[in-house]
Amino acid sequence: MMFKQITIAIALSAAISSPAFAHSDGDGHCKDTQLGSIMKEMSDDLKSYVGAFKRGDQAAMQTQLTTLLANSTKAKDEVPLKLQQDMPTMKGMDHSNMANMQNMKGMDHSNMTNMDGMDHSTHMQHMDYQQGMEKLTHLFNQLQDATSKGEVKTTLGNIKQHIKKSHKAFRLNCD
């Protein structure tokens, strides 16, 4: 039982602490971003959560979850560096509240003209990123609602899988 806890904790920590998660490698073709800073903080908070879980410290677990939930909300409003590569600066546009625009889910975006600076494909990828962040927030809420060690372990495993899948889709290859 303890082996599983340690294995999950190590795998989760490794998955979210990679340099790509922070979106910077210092070589110049990847730059530090607000999203990278948020993700680094989330990585640290998730590691702290796992440590608190191992110690059975419920108060520390809740504190870390509060921060994780707040940061996942902030991260949703960002654009991953991978999607910014071929985008010129989008002047005068406020994209901070795109997720809350009415009727967006039911709209047919296939005939939408390209936004200034963001083509249709990039726009759709950005919407996928935002949905992924919503799922991560949902998983953090599940973690907060977990009532047993088994539920916490299962949810941590689901978070690990989600992060791995999301990194594959949205991380910029800085190698």
What does this structure look like?
The protein is an all-alpha fold and 175 residues long. It has a domain at 1-71 and 126-168. It is built from seven helices and no strands. It comes from Moritella yayanosii. Residues 1-22 form the signal peptide.
Element order: H for helix, E for strand = HHHHHHH
If helices are DSSP runs of H or I spanning 4 or more residues, what is the number of helices? 7
Low-confidence region ranges: 13-28
Cα(first) to Cα(last) distance is 38 Å
Q: Look at the structure and give the mean pLDDT.
A: 75
Protein name: Copper resistance protein CopA
Keywords: Signal
Signal peptide: 1-22
What's a concise summary of this model?
Keywords: Signal. The chain is an all-alpha fold. The chain contains seven helices and no strands.
How are the SSEs ordered, and which strands pair?
Layout: H1 2-16, H2 19-22, H3 34-55, H4 58-76, H5 81-84, H6 120-145, H7 149-170
Helix pairs in contact: 1-3, 1-7, 3-4, 4-6, 6-7
